[in-house]
Amino acid sequence: MRNTLKIATSIALLTGSTWAKEGCFPENDLKFSSKMKSASMSKIEFDQVVKKALDIYSPIIKKKFKKKLIINGEWENDRVNAHATRDDYDNPVISLLGGMARHPEMTKDGLMLIICHELGHQFGGAPKQFRGRSTRRSWSSAEGQADYFSATKCLPKMFQSTQETKLAISLSDESAYEEARKKCKDDICVRIVLSGLSVGRVFASLRSGWEIPKISNLDSYKVSMTEYKHPKPQCRLDTYISGANCENDRDKDFDNVDPKIGACFRAENGYDDTNGARPRCWYHPQSYFK
């Protein structure tokens, strides 16, 4: 059945008749071969992360949506990216490319964040992307919203093990840990921020001119309308930090229409800089319904 669904998904993507792909990163030419000797992650570690994600989120998706979570770990694929789509049965499908896992800046926690980001496209709620050039909303959440879902809803479930979290933190860069600690109230938040730093650094490597994000920095740019494509690396890291600090009910789902439900949010005028709210570098609190 698994192979059948994968084939069906591939056919749908080729014909364009079913679901479009949503990539975690912009399409790029960066590659890391599966034959490289000093990869940042082994296939065993790659498979372990995939298995953990399936073990934790498959029951949730089955219970809430009556669907089957499918994660295709394409270890031999050298490209740096991941994609979310849906098959002919409306099951969520995530494809993880091996080149992304082998990127020098990628960590196991960073890879888990990538999986959460792709789950965020599937179940992250509003704001939703548009379908092509139309005014109709897509099934997929905006890029920034998928990141916000990762930090607020998904990673807290993935990082519940206190022992595992302490180990992950102990292996992190000391200076990065100290900066994350300044932003966080607990170890889970610190771990989320550090995983976001890993992904942010990978993201910054994909285009010349993109600066490497820093936990201590803040993207001061404010959009006049919500941005649905990939925010810049610093803005993306800011989203992870905000989401990790959102103390709203982590088990309350985001709504597909109202962005406030399940989220931390600013006042209607947009000037109340609430801790844990979506950053203004990609999200505008008054523009979604227009």
Major pleated sheet: 4 strands, mixed
Unreliable runs: 1-18
Class by SSE composition: alpha+beta
Radius of gyration from CA coordinates: 18 Å
Features:
290 residues, 4-stranded mixed beta sheet, alpha+beta, two-stranded antiparallel ribbon
Describe this structure in words.
The chain is of the alpha+beta class and 290 residues long. The chain is 42% helix and 9% strand. It has one domain (2-244). Helix 4 packs across helix 5. The model is unreliable at 1-18 (pLDDT under 50).
Layout of helices and strands:
Elements: H1 2-15, E1 22-23, H2 43-65, E2 70-74, E3 82-86, E4 92-97, H3 98-101, H4 108-123, E5 128-130, E6 137-141, H5 143-158, H6 162-170, H7 174-183, H8 187-204, H9 233-244
Give a concise summary:
It is built from 9 helices and 6 strands; from the N terminus they run H-E-H-E-E-E-H-H-E-E-H-H-H-H-H. The chain has 290 residues and is an alpha+beta fold. It has one domain.
